[in-house]
Amino acid sequence: MILVSDYPPIELIGISGRLAIGSILLASGIMKVVRPPNLEPLINAVGVPEIGSRNLIARLLASIEVAIGLWLFTGWLIKYALVSVILLFVAFIFVQAAAVQGGYKGGCACFGANENGQIGITQRVRNIVFLLVSSFSFVSSFKSTGTEFPIWALPRLVFVLAAIMLGAGTAVYLLSTEIESLVRRPSS
Hints:
By secondary structure, this protein is mostly helical.
């Protein structure tokens, strides 16, 4: 049986971050399958030629997110999984910046068609935070081989820490989204 004391604190935080990011990717991918967003205007603003229907692109992205999310939970070849996540978030950051630069005024559709509002600083900061958490998890994965364990072999504290990260992150994101919408709202 693996005990919490078997892990250095930095590794516990890294594993928790990995599980939090895995949960976020799973949720995002599933939401894109349930309510596929219309990605055509965003893709057009970035300057990518039409490559298929909006459902095809959304489902492909959803499949990638779900696959990487599940990969993070398995603990198998975790360093490669974390590099994949880092590259994914870097791509999201650049696509959002290019879309805004290209005149796109819609939502980011990061969590399917449910996400409303214009791409703004909140979405950019959120993706940068996800990138930082993924990077921290990657760096901490070199500290010990414990990060290779699948989720069923991890101590319960890791799940508590991951849940706290998810809860705090959700609260901060909802608050910042609300503040951003109030700032953007035209005064009467």
